[in-house]
Amino acid sequence: LRYYLDKNSIKKNDVVFKEYVQGNFHSIVRNLREEVTEGEHDDTGPEVHSTDIEYRTCSVAVNRIIRKGLPLEIKQAILEKLESTLTQVSDYIINISFIMNMVLLELRNCDMITHGSFTIANILPDGFLPSQDCTIEHTIGPLSVADSFMKDFSMLMEHQHISLIHSYYFGSVGAKETNLNKHPVQMAIFKALESSGIERGKFKETSLKSYEMGNALVDVTTNMKNMWSTPKIFYGLMNSLLDVLLRVHLVPNREAKYRSYIQKKAEERSKKDSQQPVDDNSRTSTFADLPRNARRNIARGEEYKKKKYEAKIKRKPEEAHKWKAKVDTQLASKNDDEDDVEEEELITGNTTDLTRRRLRCLKSVLKSLLLDDRKDEFSIDDLKKECSDVEEKEAYPCLLILNALKPYIPKKKERFIIAHQLPFCILANDTLLYAGYRKFYRKLCPQPSASSLHALRIDGPSLYQILTRLPCALAIFNYDNYLIESVEEARQNKDAVFSSLFDMNAI
Questions:
Q1: Which of 124, 283, 403, 455 could cysteine-pair with 128, CB 3.0–4.6 Å?
Q2: If you write DSSP's letter for every residue of 245-261 in order, what string do you get?
Q3: 104 and 193 in contact (C-beta within 8 Å)?
Q4: What values do phi and psi take at 114, rounded to 5?
Q5: Whole-number pLDDT of residue 249
Q6: How far is CA 446 from CA 95, 107, 192, 227, 273, in A?
């Protein structure tokens, strides 16, 4: 091809390639077919990995990758700028995550989105005592979004909505009115946040530049997208909520024993902690503090060791005294754990309550009916079609749960949209807290720690803004010794921007 181009250099490129393909079409096809055939039969070649999806990362001190020839004053100024930017970016991520969590709270009170509120006690048995740690009595009502606002509602917590939050509260100029008027649902939530002191432009007084906040915003939106990439949170809360509601309705005796046992353990633990104050660094957990599954795993391991020692006694009688002592040790350890087994049997003792197998069967029936888009309300006939052997004492609680939860279940085509999953997830979280099952609570939004720094993501433009920020603004030159005076020039000369600060060979 190169020889052909040298002979026809006057012609235009498109004409040259057309003539070349027309004159050499059959030979090109033959060569390609041979390469494909060889590739299909050659299984001994090395495996080829795509470099586009493979990344290697490592932690390294900044002092090791900064250019060695920089003056000490400039090096110190650069380190101070990076440290200051790292702190401010972490504060920005915390603040915007705080606003996103406040948006979830305001969904309960937004008249444009929900229809009234829902009293949690209505879905629980009469006389059910809520958890002492929960102060929530009312939660989000069913969706009542008009069709004209449905498109805007579906954008909640998506990339466009988070970008609007950024421009509304953090932008130096702020979102334009014409753009805000296109999002009435989101504006209704912003107006509701004003009662909590979160007003427009609340956080715009920051020294971070646009590209620095833009890079941090990418991390926030990515974390939110990864949390809701699948309906895992939705289905997980549905399973937990149905489990708890069926327990409190259909196995009240076993549930009462469980709640009293948990309360007793909590009181014993708090009493023990108050009597024996121990430094957090020197505190060690005991066997009783471990979760039930962890205790079971330990017990199985001890039983396995005992059987192994007994087998060695049979194989090597001359060493029986040594292994016999090991068996005695395991038996003593097992006897120490009998109290925990007795407590567990107390919880799961024989009562007139339904069996766990029956509860799992009813849970499967309820879940199937809730996810069925063909029905909006349910009767006893619908329940019997799905489960023919349902009894009268089971029917009323099941119908109460079905008709109370059905308005919150999104249609199948909307089940991957964050906004349509949120009402049910908020209801499930509040109900689980009300019933005393905090362990099933699920986060609906990233909640970064306020006591830790977040990674600083930098590129050419953001690094240029960091280095040229006042005070002590630094001048950056490209390879031709011309001053880089704008973000656009920094983007075009990003290799020079990075090389002005970092030792690229060391990296």
A1: 124
A2: HHHHHH-HHHHHHHHHH
A3: no
A4: -115, 160
A5: 92
A6: 12, 17, 22, 8, 32
Distance, CA of 495 to CA of 127 (rounded, Å): 69
Give Dmax (Cα) for the chain: 98
Q: What is d(CA 166, CA 221) in angstroms, rounded to the nearest whole number?
A: 11
The whole-number pLDDT of residue 447 equals: 87
Q: What SS3 class is residue 205? A: coil
Task: Give the three-state DSSP class for 138.
Answer: strand
Do residues 367 and 242 lie in contact, with contact meaning Cβ atoms separated by under 8 Å? Answer: yes
Say if CB 390 and CB 102 are below 8 A apart: no
3-state secondary structure of 114: strand
CA distances from 437 to 50, 259, 431 (A): 46, 10, 9
Q: Which tokens is 448 given?
A: 């970064």
Strand-pair partners of 139: 118
Q: What is the dihedral of CA 71, 75, 81, 83, to 10 degrees?
A: -170
What crossing angle do the helices spanning 210-227 and 72-106 adopt, rounded to 10°? 50
pLDDT score recorded for residue 338: 46
Distance of CA 466 to CAs 68, 126, 213, 462, 474, Å?
20, 61, 11, 6, 9
Could you tell me where the beta strands, DSSP code E, fall in 33-181?
117-119, 138-140
380: nearest Cα among 399, 393, 364: 399
| pLDDT averaged per 10 residues, the chain (length 507) | 57 66 80 66 46 63 84 88 89 92 84 76 85 79 77 88 89 72 85 86 79 88 91 94 93 86 81 64 61 81 81 75 62 51 47 81 92 89 88 90 92 89 92 90 88 83 86 87 89 89 85
How close are the terminal C-alpha atoms of the chain, in Å? 39
Of the CA atoms within 13 Å of residue 483, those in its CB half-sphere come to: 4
Give the residue ranges of DSSP H helices in 146-209. 147-153, 159-169, 177-180, 184-193
- Residue 475 DSSP code: P
β strands within 215-331, DSSP E = none
pTM for the complete prediction?
0.70
Residue type, 270: S
CA distance 198 to 271: 41
- What is the C-alpha to C-alpha distance for residues 192 and 106, in angstroms, rounded to an integer? 7
Q: Is the alpha carbon torsion for 116, 121, 124, 130 positive or negative?
A: positive
Helices (H) and strands (E) in the chain, counts: 22, 2
Burial code (b: 16+ CB inside 10 Å, e: under 16) for 83-121 equals eebeebbbbbbebbbbbbeebbebbbebebbbeeebebe
